[in-house]
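Render this sequence as a predicted structure.
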Amino acid sequence: MINVRTLMATHAPKSVLLLISLLVAACTTHESASLEPIRISVIGTNDVHGALVLEKERGGLVTLSGYIDAVRAARAEDGGAVLLIDAGDMWQGTVASNLNEGAAVVEAYNAMGYTAAAIGNHEFDFGPIGDAATPMNAGDDPRGALKQRATEMEFPLLAANLVDQSTGNLVAWNNVSPAVLVDVQGITVGIIGATTERTKATTIASNFVGLETESLLVAITREARQLRSQGAQLVIVTAHAGSRCEDFTDPYDLSSCDMDGEIMRLANALPVGLVDHIIAGHKHERIAHIVNDISITSNLSQTRTFSRTDFLISRQTGDILSRQVYAPQTPCPFTSTSNGECAWEDGDQVSVAHYEGRPVSPNLRVLEISRKAADIARDKSDEELGPYLETAFLLRGNPESPLSNLFTTAILDSVDGDIAIHNVTGGIRATLPEGPLTYASVFEMFPFDNRVIVLDLSGAELRRIIGQQAHNHRQRAGFAGMRVLVDCNDDAMSIRMLRQDGSDILDNDRVAVIVNDFLVLGGDDILTPAMPEDGFVFGGRGPLTRDVLVDWFRMQPGRMNAADFQSTDNPRWTLPEELPASCTLPTSNP
């Protein structure tokens, strides 16, 4: 360029010379800018579970959309880009979303400009298109609703480890692929999607029939190598699998992290340098850490947080020059003018929240979609069922909390059976707030379309179930209708199971056990110690568990207090403070 300017200067008039000088300067500036590194902000969401609107200290997609737009505006100013990626469990969980089987959430995701999303275990929950949650007729497609939502997405749905048993190949559904390559202003980014290897045990098994999950490590390694061979300079995994961390001051400090979690084990096992970033989920826990040179992020459910990692990448080489892992971000709509803390309601002492130096303003299209869905659901959601809750019912206690005890007691009171067993950790999704109890609160506590089943078990079979659950420290089942006393002597476990009248349940006794179809089909492995090789045999299809709960609440018109369902003084579970893993039921006492 210098030579051209020199030759023209001896023959051209001054006006032309000025124009050429300006053009050369502009080209030089453009060339200089193209040599600058590019900043790519990777925003991750997971376990949104239908949270469309601002409610109960969660921002909803409405508030979150304003934060995404703020980051996009910042990247537009500095020549960077934003990748918005979800790690599954997008739509199941609120009345506004469930009434249309997640269609409103997909519409909102399209408006927010998602780049890709993974399939989570609860994407299977709606079953066939329509009211039936599981196949009822021979022609029903158990994945009908999921496949329909996939066709409506303006971004790819990713599933690198979902295998069709009939072919032995990965599923071949419209707009579903194992991975995708994205050109981000000249940087080639590969994105892989996968789901927990326990998907079958954490969704309605009849909707997962004919499928199996491949090893996360095998699937992701295969896809990542393929993406690298196709020129991917940044490889991102979005996986519906998780773990948890507690401290976010230093992403390299893993001392507060559960390194036995599925996503941590995966990250540690991956070849170094193959994957750069993982967006995790499933556990509803936070992660913002670096493991094996892979940054991993994960969030609390229902848009209570979102994750962000900024990559600075060389435009010339594609190398990652730096990486900033943000602590989990809270999408607050407002902040207090006195202390700057998050505020969830507008008022005199609050102002609109700012992010990236900009006021957070909801995306108008997302706002419109969410309001429309909420309006349709409002009449059903706002119905008051009768009871007035003097206190909130919380899930504090494993598994005995006022809420879990209330839940299992209600089921036992409503169905003809001896005891009720439920996966209260994971199976109960939200607390019940203080005040008049509404249908929406019960729905969000239990959004699943599971049905009540009564099994005829022997006392010995029930004892085996309790023996396994005694070791299930983090997700022990809750129950009503009995108390259990577990002890251990020289690694021999002894279990007493006492009915409400104080009599013992003996091995030869027959016990009517109230559960739901999720557990009957192997969900959370709660009933598997007693499950026959060909599965349980049960007749008919009982009512929806949620309907049973709603009807029970309608029969409780008075005031209810969490203290009335606290079992601290008379626990349903009594166990040693430490129960060795080697402590098991003797074979002579199955």
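Summary. Residues 1-20 have pLDDT under 50 and may be disordered. Residues 209 and 418 are 31 Å apart (CA to CA).
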